[in-house]
Design goal:
- With 130 residues, this protein is mainly alpha-helical.
- It has 6 helices and no strands.
- The longest helix is centred in the C-terminal third of the chain and has 24 residues, at 91-114.
- The protein starts with a helix and ends with a helix.
- Bound molecules: the ligand O=C(C1CCC1)N1C[C@@H]2C[C@H]3C[C@@H](O)[C@@H](O)[C@]2(C1)O3.
- The ligand O=C(C1CCC1)N1C[C@@H]2C[C@H]3C[C@@H](O)[C@@H](O)[C@]2(C1)O3 binds at residues 30-31, 35, 39-40, 82, 85-86, 96.
Length: 130
């Protein structure tokens, strides 16, 4: 198996660990599954690209992410959707936005703490030549 495939396999192992840690954090329960369209009928009128942590985990296994940046782009999408759909002054919307910002900060902190920047550079080089 090629050196590139070895690198991408290591990336997937690393991203599964981070995604699992985010998904088992009780604070992020609201981000773990797709928003229920039966419960929220206008959701897809406002949010054009839904995203959630379960979907992110399945994208890892489908080799959708070639570098940590691609993974963080989907985390940012989860956050952006939550901020856009829940913009009001109400306590509930404020709570959702606070948790969304916390999800983003935790994800970036895990990547920074556990990812060697040379490793991410190698992944970027693979992505950019594909
Ligand atoms: O945006 C979201 C999720 C929170 C971050 C993702 N939702 C939209 C609905 C509005 C609010 C209250 C409940 O109606 C619940 O269904 C949702 C789920 O939270």
């Amino acid at each position: 198996i090629s050196q590139e495939e070895n690198t991408l396999r290591e990336l997937r192992i690393f991203l599964r660990d981070i995604c699992a840690k985010l998904a088992r954090n009780k604070q992020f329960f609201m981000f773990t599954k797709p928003v229920d369209i039966e419960e929220v009928p206008d959701y897809l009128e406002i949010i054009k690209e839904p995203m959630d942590l379960e979907t992110v985990m399945s994208k890892i296994d489908k080799h959708c992410y070639i570098c940590a940046r691609d993974f963080l782009d989907d985390i940012d999408l989860i956050v952006r959707n939550a901020l856009e759909y829940n913009p009001d002054k109400s306590a509930e919307d404020k709570h959702i936005r606070h948790r969304a910002c916390s999800l983003r900060d935790k994800a970036y902190a895990f990547i920074k703490a556990e990812m060697d920047s040379d490793f991410e550079d190698t992944c970027r080089d693979i992505r950019d030549k594909r």
